[in-house]
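Anyone? Bumping this.
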Amino acid sequence: RKEVEQDPGPFNVPEGATVAFNCTYSNSASQSFFWYRQDCRKEPKLLMSVYSSGNEDGRFTAQLNRASQYISLLIRDSKLSDSATYLCVVTPSGGYNKLIFGAGTRLAVHP
Amino acid sequence: EAQVTQNPRYLITVTGKKLTVTCSQNMNHEYMSWYRQDPGLGLRQIYYSMNVEVTDKGDVPEGYKVSRKEKRNFPLILESPSPNQTSLYFCASRTLATGGEQFFGPGTRLTVL
């Protein structure tokens, strides 16, 4: 079983739609959680951290469910520019020496 | 401009011909890391470095070497490349104080024939 698993998609949605991605992780002792965005084989960039209480940044909302070992990303009012691959990232217990990346979920927003 | 640079961006080589991919950052970051990205597998860590002269293996270190003689540079060396090392490689850096925000270079697409 992979340490971090994501549905690869693609999720094809029209502009203005709300879309949600989930990501599951296998290590219950994982410490920190993040969503990164990657455009068409370019470098990944941090989208947002995921906090236990949940957090929101504009149209983006991230949630953490430690009991079920998953994190989620909700995108409201999708824009064409949201089309990208979203990477779920987890740090294992013991610190930040490594980040474990999911394989990514591809989102395609169409007019 | 704060950035991580990698060179070359694209490289086609043949089996067994030693190569080096350079990585440099201008943000005075202590931590640097190399990843490879393959379809369906996500980014996998090859090596990382917590500071000058301090390096350690990641998840897939076989066939790779690194060095950290200066804080800003972290080259990746393939002594004898093989076709299974064909991949997209990213270098990344961050401060030790931050958690997950790593700054990535633009990537090096390597093909080994």
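Late reply, but here is one note on the structure posted above: Residues 53 and 68 of chain B are 5 Å apart (CA to CA).
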